[in-house]
From TrEMBL:
Residues 78-162 form the Methylated-DNA-[protein]-cysteine S-methyltransferase DNA binding domain. This is Methylated-DNA--[protein]-cysteine S-methyltransferase. The keyword Glycosyltransferase does not apply. Gene3D superfamilies: Winged helix-like DNA-binding domain superfamily/Winged helix DNA-binding domain. The keyword Aminoacyl-tRNA synthetase does not apply. NCBIfam families: ogt. CDD domains: ATase.
Length: 174
């Protein structure tokens, strides 16, 4: 497989329908998952946890109901972990607004959005299931309506069978 600038920080890179997923591992745990644009090439797993993560990410791409069972590093503040726990409770095929989650955990929508953007484990903590009250909202600290990250969010929602369609039509892959 080809190596390229930036790929050396990843323990593996898996091809994805929207580009690629970078996988970083450390001390026998997943440290981070990263959405990568299509110009990143696949990279073979460098350790057993990265190999396991590759297999599970690919299973998710084949089956939106797949449940991840990866060992994850402890990341984030107590508040972020509360937000991420609430996000994990959103069932596949459903979305919640930042405001809904904020009310659920006793916080503010902006703080929920910031915790979503700080998510180290996208797909596993499905922050793509959180939208604004008026539409798609941001994703992974990006809000360019026609950019890579929001197109990934559209793909993930479509993959999971979310029935709302206003954001689907703007995907760079449709």
């Amino acid at each position: 497989m080809n190596t390229q600038q930036g790929s050396e920080i990843f323990s593996a890179i898996v091809a994805a329908p929207f580009g690629a997923m970078g996988i970083r591992t450390e001390d026998g745990r997943v440290r981070e998952l990263v959405y990568l644009p299509p110009h990143f090439h696949e990279k073979d797993a460098q350790d057993p946890v990265a190999e396991q993560a590759c297999a599970q990410v690919l299973r998710y791409f084949d089956d939106a109901d797949f449940v991840f069972t990866l060992p994850l590093m402890e990341r984030g503040s107590d508040f972020q972990r509360r937000v991420w726990e609430a996000i994990c409770a959103i069932p596949r095929g459903a979305v919640r607004t930042y405001g809904h989650l904020a009310k659920e955990i006793g916080s503010a929508p902006r703080a929920v959005g910031q915790a979503c953007g700080a998510n180290w484990f996208p797909l596993i903590i499905p922050c793509h299931r959180v939208t604004s009250a008026s539409g798609l909202g941001g994703f992974s600290n990006h809000d360019d309506e026609n950019g890579f990250h929001l197109s990934v969010k559209r793909w993930l929602l479509k993959h999971e069978g979310v029935s709302q369609s206003p954001w689907r039509q703007q995907s760079i892959w449709d």
